[in-house]
UniProtKB/TrEMBL annotation:
Its EC number is 3.5.4.1. It comes from Rhizobium leucaenae. This is Cytosine deaminase. InterPro entries: Amidohydro_3, Metal-dep_hydrolase_composite, Metal_Hydrolase, Metallo-hydrolase_Enzymes. Keywords: Hydrolase, Metal-binding. Residues 41-401 form the Amidohydrolase domain. Gene3D superfamilies: Metal-dependent hydrolases (3.20.20.140), Urease, subunit C, domain 1 (2.30.40.10). GO terms for biological process: cytosine catabolic process. The lineage of its organism: Bacteria, Pseudomonadati, Pseudomonadota, Alphaproteobacteria, Hyphomicrobiales. One of its GO terms (molecular function) is cytosine deaminase activity. PANTHER family: CYTOSINE DEAMINASE (PTHR32027:SF0).
Length: 433
């Protein structure tokens, strides 16, 4: 049998070195050193890290690349971003939303990002963005897994048509039930929305992903209700709470009660470091809050934590580039996750942990998994985060879908080397990766 692809001399995230990865029929058929056989294409990883693809489990693709339309967010705040999105929504067209989303997917593939969960606003009665992203989902399916969340951006109860539009969106084929309880008019309405939305998900057999407590208010505690409803309805493992930023301001005693409840319910946590760090703490002078939920403490309770990109060049965030290593890098710094083990976790937070959130099948580097790989210009996961390493090859189902030259600088310095490879600066000591 002639294989589709062999990647030789790969380093793997678990620390194994000198591994050959063989792909046939779009699946990994062997992972072993010194493998014999022929393939239509052979890639020499030269000891560099080979990883399963990056995953973004929290994004807003209906707004991406809309920076400057119809104006800029001059304050840079969350609330102005929401207001600006309200101005932009009536101006959207199916074609423009789809084209921006497709362009973003092109960028994502080039960055080794091959699975995205995106929230899509359902508070526009036209459901224009829903239909556009359903079209995009079909078009990108050969090279990118796209999940859609029915997101009542203006509030499930606060927006008059949101309840009906959410049901319509799910009927059209949107995958996941979303919500934004802290944006309802009252705390009581927020809690009611969590209950109602979880019941819809239970009835339809769907997952839940809620923007939950994206606020500096320590009394915003909808994650407590979300955890309770998850247990009541038997949704364990199917529910994610995104952002959870109010936890950075909560009383420590209350947090000590809340964290075990989240763990018991099996609710996934999705912080979004790039966006949270710039949008939260805007009313603070000094000391200024960091805008990230309690990642260290959640890890101690075994809660699955995945980092999301959230936004890219849109009303809320004018930066971004579909680079999940950039997300991991920010999460590491803001969360002060600087032990070797914690830095290694940051790589998992944009790969395997996110795969758990999305419920992806066939993800990984084991025999039988999908032939989806990224060859990185780095020796191990920590170095990949440190360098935000170049994606040398991106492979989907055994086919190379993107190639990027190695980042090598040429020097003109007397008595010094002629070139510099940033990956060559990896520590040589016997460190744990």
């Amino acid at each position: 049998m002639v294989l589709d692809l062999i990647v030789r001399n790969a380093g793997l995230p678990d620390g194994r070195e000198g591994q050959d990865i063989a792909i046939a029929g779009g699946k990994i058929v062997a992972v072993q050193p010194g493998m014999e056989g022929e393939a239509e294409r052979v890639i020499d990883a030269d000891g560099q890290l080979v990883s399963p693809p990056f995953i973004d489990c929290h994004f807003h693709m209906d707004a991406t690349l809309s920076l400057g339309l119809p104006r800029l967010n001059t304050s840079g705040t969350l609330l102005e971003g929401i207001a600006l999105w309200g101005e932009l929504k009536p101006l959207l067209t199916h074609e423009a939303v789809a084209e921006r989303a497709l362009r973003y997917c092109d960028l994502a593939v080039s960055q080794g990002l091959l699975a995205v969960r995106t929230h899509v606003d359902i508070c526009d009665d036209r459901l224009l963005a829903v239909e556009a992203l359903l079209d995009v989902k079909r078009k990108v399916a050969p090279y990118l897994d796209l999940q859609l969340v029915a997101f009542p951006q203006d509030g499930y109860f606060r927006s008059p048509a949101a309840a009906a539009n959410l049901e319509r969106s799910l009927d059209l084929g949107v995958d996941i039930v979303g919500g934004i309880p802290h944006f309802e008019r009252t705390m009581e309405d927020g809690a009611r929305s969590v209950r109602a939305l979880c019941e819809i998900a239970e009835k339809r057999g769907l997952m839940v992903d809620m923007h939950c407590d994206e606020t500096d208010d320590p009394l915003s505690r909808h994650i407590e209700t979300l955890a309770a409803e998850t247990v009541r309805l038997g949704l364990q493992g199917r529910v994610a709470g995104s952002h959870l930023t109010s936890m950075h301001s909560m009383d420590n005693y209350y947090a000590s009660k809340l964290l075990p409840l989240i763990a018991e319910a099996g609710v996934h946590a999705i912080p979004n470091p790039l966006i949270n760090i710039v949008l939260q703490g805007r009313h603070d002078t000094y000391p200024k809050r960091r805008g990230l939920t309690r990642v260290k403490e959640m890890r101690e309770f075994g809660i699955n934590i995945a980092f999301g990109q959230d936004c890219c060049m849109d009303p809320w965030y004018s930066l971004g580039g579909a680079d999940m290593l950039d997300v991991a890098h920010m999460g590491l710094h803001v969360g002060q996750l600087t032990s070797r083990e914690a830095m290694r976790f940051c790589f998992d937070a944009v790969t395997v942990n996110s795969a758990k959130v999305m419920g992806l099948h066939g993800y990984g580097l084991e025999v039988g998994c999908n032939g989806d790989l990224v060859v990185l210009q780095a020796r191990n996961p920590i170095e990949a985060v440190r360098l935000r390493a170049a994606r040398l090859f991106v492979i989907r189902r055994g086919k190379v879908v993107s190639e990027t030259p190695a980042r090598i600088a040429k020097l003109s310095l007397d008595g010094r080397p002629q070139s510099v490879d940033p990956a060559a600066y990896a520590p040589t000591e016997n460190l744990t990766y």
